[in-house]
Amino acid sequence: xxxxxxxxxxxxxxxxxLYDDGDTLFGLADLGFGCPExxxxxxxxxxxxxxxxxxxxxxxxxxxxxxxxxxxxxxxRRMGAIVLAEAELxxxxxxxxxxxxxxxxxxxxxx
Length: 111
What we know:
Layout: E1 2-5, E2 12-18, E3 24-30, E4 37-42, H1 43-47, E5 58-59, H2 69-79, H3 82-96
Antiparallel strand pairs: 1-2, 1-5, 2-3, 3-4
Helix pairs in contact: 2-3
């Protein structure tokens, strides 16, 4: 599982499969409009995105999968964004590990 993100925007992708063509990825895509969706997307297109200040879409090298893609998808759809799902899945994981928890996020992402 790999995560790509826009460092100056809301777009985020989590990919679990790379097709034999070496370009087509399958996973969860969130362009920041509040409706993350499962599907296919192009690695070439993601790599070709030019952002302000000379930035590009980045790979999150510190990404921890935390859960299967199906749970990511369900949580992201409920929360409205992959980044909010990540916070919620981390909270759940921390609670299972006995760590101190922040309050749960509601469906709007507020604490």
